[in-house]
């Protein structure tokens, strides 16, 4: 509205915002705290500062393998679901399609079904087809889950897309594929990057589908889940959680930096 | 100048595939859509169909009796425990949804209307805690509420209690607090987006037409942000109603939800067909609840307008 | 007749039940500045997009430079387009935009850069090559869109309301530049506009369209001075219409009779009418001369009272009330002197006269 009050002006709203942020931050901040606590029991009072859990973390092959598995699955899922989302988003924003509404609803179904039901349905199908459970089945289920997210992100990027840009490229002599490559792709690129990041993150953190659809190869959430039953393993898991948090902070900052730099580059690049 | 005679046959030469492709937007659109649709047909429609079929079979040790039977559905309605837990789950996630959305709305409003510059920074600030693994975030509440947890230690240090409180953890309330925390960002973002989209001149117009700030909020801002509120509610309600991670970790025996039941049917209890039937019933119930909710919000919007 | 560069033969385009273009058949000559003029939704843009290849005609065929186009996709056609919103590629700078279509030109990088510099010179944006697309004003975007198409040396340049988004001053300046550019390069321009003044200023010939149909194709002067239908007469400029009937028509002189005008003679009428034909007698506002004394020795005149007036700077519009006519008659006068000489006193009796060749006679059927 037209009120030009600075946001830090003390009033009920600001107080509320502070309390709310405390609520969402406070529990999470205890996780790194205990990753530096020398006691192996996750409880107060704190003992002394230590890095031994980080040491244990890098020396735990099963944890690192789970991490690697999650990264592998996440990368494949990000690429597959972004491609599927891109195709759908392109078709839905570019063409007047009969039945557009039902197509969108259909693609959205994974978002409106509780994950556990998606998981067991896939489990039943896969077992009936005698397909062995593996990281591939996890990846397939994650791709299904992530495709609607990818599509939503890409649709919002493409909705404002001016179709005459593609027509201009055709008019200037490029065929359909080159038009995509030289015009559509670079313009939609920020959306593609956002979609890759989002779908990777979802897959990386996904537990339910992975729990039902993996066999002996654990992903990281499965490893964490099993560790939570063994108190002695928890500090190292907290160390890993804290490390991932810091890494993702840098990845997002780097992506943002790239994006800003990209905006500048766009304006000066030639052909 | 006559030119038509030489070129007329071109149009009568029948519908070649290439020409159909060039002219029909629908054909081109669906061609582009086909990989996505195929993947979803394979990975979504088929499994759900199989789930539905299985719910009419019967478990026979490690195999299934593949003849049509209503046994699982009859079991569900004969043993009140399943229905009770389903209703409890819906009530719990309903409350979680309500709390999450009510708590998120003022925060989203604050970012949308009070923050003038760098809104993105605030949005990132909101999402940062959620970069931690979901399991660890749930675990964090065990830390908060546990026997030697943050709250007990704090209260003890301050001298309010001499012995740790045991009722904090392992109950439905702990599940609901944890869920409300875990899904906060999913409520804030859609509400924020819908508030941000509101044309500020509409609010000025309402004030100009003589409404005070509160009535303006009720008659203009709230109805216009309703799509965001609906999206937020669904984004929180649907995943929480089927969750079994949180109840397993912080719920204790009294805090279990329908997800735990389904999971056990595919694990320890080993009765897939019954699990499938419970899933089907849960899905239908959730769908019914959502329809009721959407119908309710529709009539609310009509009443306000 | 000059060599035809585009030839439409019975081109129709239907979207479902809507006919956007209905049986268009005409030719555009090499080097012509040809405009498609009509109100929005008349099908002019559809026709242009059919030439570009973005729409496929439902019926009929288009020849560009003698070649049938129905099987040729847009990227293979020897035409280029300046889009209504310019469609400047946002991720490329000016040089990148202009070079876009030259990927397969076979020019070396140095030659291509030289070409681009020449084109930038041509569109009066020298030194703008490294400007980002978001650093350009509306007029500059328009020039870049023009350059991007012209560097391809198309046989026909298609322009889809390219000046619509510009303000009036800039639009007039661009009109002059466009016309000069077209004459300098000798390329055929096919120009779509809804602005009749713009079409008159720029074009060698204009096709007036309405509801998918091409109503009339003629030079600007022909369209303005002797339109062939009431629609064209009304759409281009302002016109006063009177109902009448033909008494006699011979040797370009047509005698008509009308309740308000009496029996008068229109000279320089191209069409011959049989007597008794119901017609519109039409006259342009600037061809009516107001007098404040009763004209004695005049064949035809209109008597009325001064109504409201509008001062437009270079000229003024007066509305004259005539008895037994609902609509006032519009009179336009050049403001040759600074003072209006008090001629606009309300209700002042006024007599309107004209010369016989100012009258246009149009069939009322």
TrEMBL record, chain B:
It is a multi-pass membrane protein. It is found in: Cell membrane. One of its GO terms (biological process) is transmembrane transport. The chain crosses the membrane at residues 37-58, 92-113, 120-140, 173-195, 216-238, 274-295. Keywords: Cell membrane, Membrane, Transmembrane, Transmembrane helix, Transport. It holds the Pfam family BPD_transp_1. InterPro entries: MetI-like, MetI-like_sf. CDD domains: TM_PBP2. The keyword Transmembrane applies. This is Spermidine Putrescine ABC transporter permease component PotB (TC 3.A.1.11.1). It comes from hydrothermal vent metagenome. The lineage of its organism: unclassified sequences, metagenomes, ecological metagenomes.
